[in-house]
């Protein structure tokens, strides 16, 4: 007999967890506060570690079916705004990368949920003492386990007393997807300027997912609403900033509908949490370890969290000491890995956003001098992940 599990939030982390647990026979209910569980968003890059995790819960092929080869097979790495290459990633660093439109990813994950297991328009609150009781719009619900996957601004994290706060990364990010196919000339990846970056990632159908960043010193905080809906003003702003950058940077923006450009001030958690677990309530994904997008690993880590928990619960630990031991192992394994990646991601972002001409010259010089083997090693370290062995009873 499976466990009764409540999942707070139908983001990537919550959906992968729910589908994985249901596949193993657990009875799962997902609460999503938004009225619609789909997403618009833009694109996403997932690396080999995310696919190892998706495979561990039986979802890898579904996601492969809607994703493309991303940067694999392309000349990828870092360029200057003039188009001159600073660093070319060796093929092994991008071989496992795949790109997907967020809406497609959500669609395939939602399709795997058992009918009737998702409640939308359902903002819920966890119990501060970690007991597996949820306050829902329809009253209290008791489960064997509650998993809070409620994102960067997680109220669960605060209610559980585990919050360390969020902090701005010091830059804003725009994202968009071209309306139709766009030829990137076999080249992709990021272009680093002074306090500005632009990234190009082809999607499976030939459209291009792009992102752009700009340093925002002293920008007003907007904690309640970090993402601005698409607006023509944002389209103009990004078009103007990157107008003189190499091809096809301006073309990517021109080929995107004016109302489809999203802007988002980037934040991560102020400090790693002391725990991802309290009693029988678990934090997962951005709620546990929101990191900057500079390694392209936020969703990948949410998926790893989900797969780790699914695998650890496969040993059917019951609801007593066995469950406590499984959750302690989840906490130990996931906190260690995500703290390292969050730190590294923030560092990459800080280096990428450098704007002083001298600092940029040094950065670019170091990038040019870095051997391809070192770039491959760094990528391999980030992307190396295997599911835990299930606990013995
Ligand atoms: C610019 C940018 C680019 C990125 N690019 C990449 C990339 O290329 N690769 C990558 O791996 N990651 C990337 N990320 C990170 C990735 O988007 C996130 O890490 C990932 O989406 C987190 O998923 P999640 O399920 O933890 O949280 P979310 O997706 O935030 O989902 C949380 C869900 O919980 C719901 N919710 C919140 N509170 C409640 C409540 N009280 N009750 C019920 N529901 C609730 C919300 O409505 C939401 O649906 C990027 C992020 C940014 C900002």
Automatic annotation (TrEMBL):
Q: Which GO terms describe its molecular function?
A: FAD binding; monooxygenase activity
Q: Where is the composition biased (Low complexity)?
A: 215-231
* Region (Disordered) location: 215-235
Q: Which UniProt keywords apply?
A: Monooxygenase, Oxidoreductase
Residue ranges constituting the FAD-binding domain according to the UniProt record = 4-344
Q: Which InterPro entries match?
A: FAD-bd, FAD-dep_Monooxygenase_BioMet, FAD/NAD-bd_sf
- Signal peptide feature range: none
Lineage, top-rank taxon, reads Bacteria
Query: What name does this protein carry?
Result: Monooxygenase FAD-binding
The organism named in the record is: Kineococcus radiotolerans (strain ATCC BAA-149 / DSM 14245 / SRS30216)
Q: Which Pfam families match?
A: FAD_binding_3
């Amino acid at each position: 007999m499976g466990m009764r599990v409540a999942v707070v939030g139908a983001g990537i982390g919550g959906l992968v967890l729910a589908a994985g647990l249901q596949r193993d026979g657990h009875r799962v209910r997902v609460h999503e506060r938004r009225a619609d569980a789909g997403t618009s968003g833009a694109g996403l890059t997932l690396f080999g570690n995310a696919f190892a995790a998706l495979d561990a819960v039986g979802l890898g092929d579904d996601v492969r079916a809607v994703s493309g080869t991303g940067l694999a097979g392309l000349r990828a790495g870092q360029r200057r705004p003039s188009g001159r290459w600073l660093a070319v990633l060796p093929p092994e660093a991008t071989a496992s990368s795949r790109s997907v439109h967020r809406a497609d990813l959500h669609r395939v994950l939602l399709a795997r949920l058992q009918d009737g297991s998702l409640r939308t328009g359902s903002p819920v609150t966890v119990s501060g003492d970690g007991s597996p009781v949820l306050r829902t719009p329809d009253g209290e619900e008791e489960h064997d386990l509650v998993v809070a996957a409620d994102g960067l601004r997680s109220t669960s994290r605060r209610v559980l007393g585990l919050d360390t706060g969020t902090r701005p990364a010091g830059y804003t990010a725009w994202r968009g997807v071209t309306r139709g196919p766009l030829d990137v000339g076999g080249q992709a990846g990021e272009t680093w300027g002074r306090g500005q970056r632009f990234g190009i990632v082809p999607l499976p159908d030939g459209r291009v997912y792009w992102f752009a960043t700009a340093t925002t010193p002293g920008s007003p905080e907007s904690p309640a609403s970090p993402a601005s809906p698409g607006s023509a003003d944002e389209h103009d702003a990004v078009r103007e900033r990157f107008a003189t950058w190499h091809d096809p940077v301006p073309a990517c923006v021109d080929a995107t509908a004016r109302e489809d450009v999203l802007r988002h001030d980037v934040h991560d958690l102020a400090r790693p949490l002391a725990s991802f677990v309290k009693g029988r309530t678990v934090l997962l994904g951005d709620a546990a370890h929101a990191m900057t997008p500079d390694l392209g690993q936020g969703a990948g880590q949410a998926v790893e969290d989900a797969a780790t928990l699914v695998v650890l619960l496969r040993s059917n630990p019951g609801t007593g000491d066995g469950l406590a031991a499984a959750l302690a192992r989840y906490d130990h394994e996931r906190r260690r890995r995500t703290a390292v990646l969050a730190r590294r991601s923030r560092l990459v972002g800080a280096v990428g956003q450098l704007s002083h001409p001298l600092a940029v010259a040094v950065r670019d010089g170091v990038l040019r001098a870095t051997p391809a083997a070192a770039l491959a090693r760094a990528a391999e370290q980030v992307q190396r992940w295997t599911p835990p062995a299930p606990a013995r009873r």
